[in-house]
Amino acid sequence: MLALKFALMLAAALLLATAVGIPLTNLILRLRAQFMRSIDGLNLTDGGIIPSETNSIPWRTPLAIALVACLPAVIATSIVVVPSGMGGVRVSQFSGTVPGTLYPGIHFVTPLIETVKTFDLRDHIYTAGVTEESSPESKQEPKQKSPLTVQSREGLNIGLAITVRYHLDPRRLDHVEAQLPQPVDKEIVPPVVASAWRELAPSYTVTEIFSTRREEVRAKAAETITRKLAADGILVQEVMLRDIQLPAEYAKGLEGLLLKEQENDQMGVTTEIQQKQVRIAELQAEAEEVAKVKESEGEAQSKVLEAKGEADAMQYTLPLKEKQIQQSKLEAEARKEATIQNAQADAEAKVIDSKAELERRNLFADAEANRIRLIATANAERMKSEAALLNQSPLLINKIVAERLSDKIQVMMVPSDGKFFFANDVFKSATANPALKQELESADDAKETPKGQSR
């Protein structure tokens, strides 16, 4: 439908443009012809391009086109679109406001006779005594509104910050348009709200309005405002009492009173906390006492159980101990028998060792006796042979002496007819010299002892 309205308006505009364009074109051509004639001095009427001065401008055709263009324009004006969130009423040039509400959408009205007056059906906000702070991102200054001043029962002036949320009744838009002053937001709502609060406030004291009966005051004010505005086709959604500004002196006194009440409450809380702490200490003492009793009982029971356990264990321990004692005795007897057997074996071994040692010594003694006998026999035979040799050769005595004294004196051989003067002198000096005499005896002993045997 909106496309149809747009098409009709476009068609009307084009037809009107055509109607205006035709005489305007003829007028331009006439002006051009006059201009060219004034320059060239030529008569351009014979060519048929530019009309002559005697030809009139055609008005019938443009007028007919203009009349035809009025038809789509009139049809387009009869189509009315009510936006979303809005409502409308018909206003006739003859009968005034037509009953009924036009809701969002497309509607048809009588062209050139009826018009449509639209109203915003969405929620509206009325505020009094509120400071609207600007956001950090916004550079706008905060908007301030003067508070709604009312008087309490004591005659004190109180500033109220009020917010009322309302909207128009869609079913009574014709009444709003016909009976109420416009705009309703400024002419009706503010005085009704102010009068409701000013009628209600004198029934309460400052303390009741501020704290004790604040919600009751707000509810009664909301009821009064809703009733009064509903009669005029305005539906109230909510009435909020946002803030209360008390008189300066009363606020100071109330602040002091609140501080004292707060201190009293704090002392009461502190007293309750202390009482609870005392009770907690008593309960802890009782709990400790009960715990000690339970602990003592538990220890006694544990000792009894330990004694019972030990008694029960002794029944099995005594036979085990007896078996261990018997086993120890058997082990001691076994060690005794082993010790005796070891001692007997050591004694027998020592007897065997002594017998073997005795036999060894006897063998050594027999061997030594045989050796001595053999040495004696050998010495006797040697002496017999030496005696026989000396008897046969007496000069051997001198040789033997010389051999024994070869490392002490120098030996010279002399004729044998010296009658042994050298030997006689040597023997005499040997008998006179004790050291030489001892040397000769040791040499005789060495000759008597065979080679490879110790004396």
Number of helix segments? 11
The end-to-end distance, rounded to whole angstroms, is 167 Å
Structural class, from secondary structure content?
alpha+beta
Poorly predicted residue ranges: 42-54, 131-142, 418-422, 450-455
- Helicity level: 55-70%
| Biggest beta sheet attributes | 4 strands, antiparallel
Mean pLDDT: 76
Cα radius of gyration in angstroms:
81 Å
Oligomer: single chain
Shape assignment: elongated
The count of domains is: 4
Taken as a percent bin, the fraction of beta residues is: 5-15%
Folded structure, characterized:
With 455 residues, the chain is of the alpha+beta class. 63% of the residues lie in helices and 15% in strands. The protein is built from eleven helices and eleven strands. Helix 1 runs antiparallel to helix 2 (60-77), helix 5 packs across helix 7 (214-230) and helix 10 (421-432) crosses helix 11. It is elongated and about 220 Å long.
What order do the helices and strands come in, and which of them pair?
Layout: H1 2-40, H2 60-77, E1 79-82, E2 86-92, E3 96-102, E4 105-108, E5 114-120, E6 124-128, E7 131-132, E8 143-144, E9 148-151, E10 157-168, H3 173-179, H4 184-187, H5 189-200, H6 206-212, H7 214-230, E11 234-245, H8 248-392, H9 396-404, H10 421-432, H11 434-448
